[in-house]
Amino acid sequence: MTYQLIPPVNRKPDALGDGPVIPQSVKGKYRTLKWRLLVLCLTIYYVLPFLRWTRGDGQPDQAILFDLANVRFYLFWIEARAQELYYLTGLLVLATIILVLLNALAGRVWCGFLCPQTIWTDLFLLVERKLEGDRRQQLLALKQPLTLRRLIRRGVKHVLWLVIATATGGALVLYFADAPTLLAELATGDAPMIAYGMLASLTFTTYAMAGFAREKVCTFMCPWPRLQGAIWDPEALTVTYRKHRGEQRMSAKKAELARGHGLPAGDCVDCNACVVVCPIGIDIREGPSIACINCGLCVDACDTTMARVHRPRGLIDFETWTNIERESKGDRRTPARLLRPKIIVIGLVGLVLLAAMSLHLSNRATLSLLVIHDRNPVAVALSTGEVRNAYELRITNATTEEARFNLTASGNARLQISSPGLGETDAAGLPVVVPADALRKLRVIVTGHPDLAGDITFRLVREADGKETAATDRFHLP
Ligand code: SF4
Ligand code: SF4
Fold first, then answer.
1. Residue 284 CB less than 6 A away from ligand 1
2. How many domains does the chain have?
3. 445: Cβ–Cβ under 8 A, 6 or more apart, which residues?
């Protein structure tokens, strides 16, 4: 028995031509788990933009905020500026590692239980079934002329779909501005045009993806199925049909008779329940499919059938391919190994990345100083016997507050700042103010005894917390 992933097929289900698959509703433990996770995910999604996080005066107090206007990303205590968007890249890489880890544990389980596309498609299907009936009624209705009653129900369905699309996909807009304020502004019509534009485009894409594209998103638009084919793991718990147990298919009655005569009979009664509940339109009995999102609904459907015909559950189940092969050879199955070297390595890679990002974040510089010596003239001899050198100092204040510094130089040097708008000042230590999130360039003239020749170190000390940064250059003689 060899493993072969069936590539996705552009299925034309039932009487619907190119329309989406109409899956039948199903009850069971995986369906219940999916509903619970749906509620949990949506709760987190709605609560997060309203969570507050104190950051100080003049700073946004939203825990998670993508401040596009100021090109800043806030994630609780993390605050990434435009030039630090690599943190966002790091988070995306971390998310990919988590996906790969989930894949090694249980295939496309993310797709089947947690992906937003799955979540809002489930809600759309719920509304569709409430208004137009389950799969059987919908297929029957397709063959009948359109009545006014059905037309109204269809219209209500699309209105409710749009409401769900606004409340799910559209609500993403709350992460891009102060959520309570934006919500009030959206309700009163006072929100900026860009907010309405974003809301409309997110709502429309959600409506189209969940209402019309549905399984085609998971099969053809998302890159994950192709990746899944490449990183497939025979030890991962994947939804699989126990062919060795299910075949030869026959009715429950025939199977009972056959068994009564000591003849072999498969457990599959060919009820087709596993096929009609599949939101992707797969017949898992044909073999593992790249398009399968591991949602477990066919497991629920088959378990119900097995209970009805008094056969053990698990003809279709979350099982490792290793065990399927063992069972088909008549060997005993072994418990799934969740802690395998691959899982440990992927987990460690994720932890190392997380630790590296945290370390970098906690040690990142919020203050920097760069010194550039004037090239021409390098040094000027004064009539007093002293020497003068000039430098450009570039001070970066990467905090969100204006910062006040004291600037000094090593040795017995006198500093003179000559910058537009600053006037000239002459002292051993100079006060410097740098606005929030800004780079300030200062022209600094250093005058001192020729003994100063050699290295000269400029020191900036922040008044608020005494934090110091230094940079060294040369003090030249003429
Ligand atoms: S084959 Fe089963 S697990 Fe896979 S997508 Fe269809 S219903 Fe879900
Ligand atoms: S639900 Fe189970 S018994 Fe029915 S067709 Fe599918 S595999 Fe066979």
1. yes
2. 2
3. 388, 389, 390, 391, 415, 416, 417, 418
| Closest ligand 2 atom, residue 304 Cα | 1
Which atom of ligand 2 lies at the shortest distance from residue 267's CA? 3
Whether residue 432 is contained in a domain is answered as yes
The preferred substitution site among 271, 304, 313 for testing ligand 2, maximizing ligand atoms within 8 Å of CB, is: 271
Amino acid identity of 233? D
Last residue of a domain, one of 214, 237, 255: 214
Q: In what order do the strands lie in the sheet with 403-409?
A: 429-434, 403-409, 454-462, 468-475
Question: Which mutation among 26, 289, 295, 315 tests ligand 1's pocket best, with the greatest number of atoms within 8 A of CB?
Answer: 295
pTM of structure: 0.79
- Whether 279 maps to a domain, the answer reads no
The answer to whether the CB of 404 falls within 8 A of the CB of 467 is no
Question: Is 59 contained in some domain?
Answer: yes
Q: Atom 8 in ligand 1: which residue has the minimum CA distance?
A: 295
Q: Cα separation of 79 and 409, whole Å?
A: 32
In degrees, rounded to 5, the angle at the alpha carbon of residue 256 between the alpha carbons of residues 253 and 260 is 140
CA of 304 to the centre of ligand 2 (A): 9
Q: Are 373 and 379 in contact (CB under 8 A)?
A: no
| Ligand minimally distant from the alpha carbon of residue 26 | 1
Q: What CATH code is carried by the domain that includes residue 451?
A: 2.60.40.10
Residue after which a domain boundary falls, among 197, 214, 231: 214
Domain range for 449 is 367-475
Residue 360 lies in a domain: no
Is residue 290 lining ligand 1, measured as CB closer than 6 Å? no
As beta bridge partners, residue 403 has 434
pLDDT in tens, the chain (478 residues): 445 555 554 444 443 455 678 899 999 999 999 999 999 999 999 999 999 998 777 778 899 999 888 778 888 888 877 777 788 888 899 999 999 999 889 888 999 999 999 999 999 999 999 999 999 999 888 888 889 999 999 999 999 999 999 998 888 999 999 999 999 999 898 989 999 999 999 999 999 999 988 888 888 888 887 777 777 788 889 999 999 998 889 888 998 898 888 888 889 999 999 999 999 988 999 888 888 899 999 999 999 999 999 999 999 999 999 999 899 888 888 887 888 888 999 999 999 999 998 888 777 777 888 999 988 888 999 888 888 889 998 988 877 778 888 888 887 667 776 655 554 555 567 888 888 778 888 888 888 888 888 888 888 888 888 888 899 999 998 8
